[in-house]
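Researcher:
Attend to token order:
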Amino acid sequence: MRFMSFGAPNTDTAGWVCYATETAGLYAFARLAQDAHGQFVVRDLLVSAEDRISATGLQSVKVGQIEREANAWPDWMREALLKAPAERDAFVASFREGMVRKGEPLSEKLAKGSRPRLTRPGGEDPERFYALVARAYREVSAQTPRPAPVLADEAGVPVATVRRWIAEARRRGHLPPGRAA
């Protein structure tokens, strides 16, 4: 782990450390802050990869190890971590405001979207229907790792039916092949 500059030139950009994980080409940039007991904890985390970030690679980001190492540093290094700029707080807050809040039903969040709701296919063009399935899948999967149950609830069909629709949309080229986490 080492100190990392983060921000515009000539600004106080302390507070960030760079952590090279056990996965080659995968790095974590962590901003540290003190908790109520004066111990450093990871407050913000950015993960960057030279290639794709996989679930296995993400598991190699050891937040506890980052905190333990930072808390073991000498005082002069620890003091530098407390000088993180306030504009970073505003930057992070701007992203947090747009996130789905816990307790807000996903269906209400998605209802605000512009796509038509999925329904059982009627006599319309099958290609159009599977294009709609693909659009709905992409939109919902951006909000939840389990889009099929949400889409099934929306369409009033069993989850297995929606999974068949998704598979057919993939087969027709409207979605890329699925990949393992």
Helices lie at 55-58, 63-72, 75-81, 86-97, 106-111, 126-141, 147-155, 159-171. Residues 134 and 174 are 6 Å apart (CA to CA). Confidence is low (pLDDT under 50) at residues 7-14. The longest helix spans residues 126-141.
